Amino acid sequence: MVLVSPELVEDHLDEPELRQAYRFLERDREVRAYFRMANVMAVNRMMYNDHGQVHARITAGSALHILSMLLEAGETPSSIRDGPCRIEDAKLIVLLGAYLHDIGNAVHRVLHHVHGCYLAARILDRLLPEIYDDVELMVQVKQEVLNCIFSHDEAVHCISLEAGVVKVADGTDMAEGRARIPYRKGKVDIHSLSALAIRSVELEEGSERPVRITIHMDNPAGVFQVEETLMRKIATSGIAHLIEIQEFVDGRLLKVERPRGYVLPRRP
Fold it and tell me: Could you tell me which residues are beta bridge partners of residue 2?
């Protein structure tokens, strides 16, 4: 069992390409400026919760861990199935898609999944040539990353396993007030109460499905956050059938859920 946290990503940077890409993202001034502006727009001007660099790290770590569990369970990433990507490329796609998925908030919260694509494309055009010599492979990786960014919106049905992983991982960043339903800071309502009720989120192998997400809460108000954020993301992720959820309140098991939802299309 692992805790969803900003440090988790560091445990999944085994391949040189992943370490190189992560270092680039963490140090790049343009990327950091987009995150700062994302929180200017979301936090300062709209009084929403954090959508900046800490959220990027948390989502990236959660996504890479979920991907590792699915790989262990025998699932094949879409980029590998459709070729010519390898395992390390699929991991890179997930890392980049998860880390950059919310930078579109630097333009506006509305349609931020669309804005994120054209902002991320500029970054990827600088980063990917440092990793790939093969232009065709580089283009596929870039487009798969953009697909992950576009697809993280709840209304978009994922068409790749990688995008589904990023979308679900996005929903797991909800502990200690870090809810993925944007809520107005300082306002007391079901959104803020449910966000503050969640203490921790953990990932482990499930009993019936490859991935179990365990959520620990102080009170049942946290169920609202789970239902309105995580479950809605899982429903359009294409990987709902691979995930189960446990919810605990004060250490007591409240419910177990085995979500249903859209399933990724399979090649005939």
Answer: 203
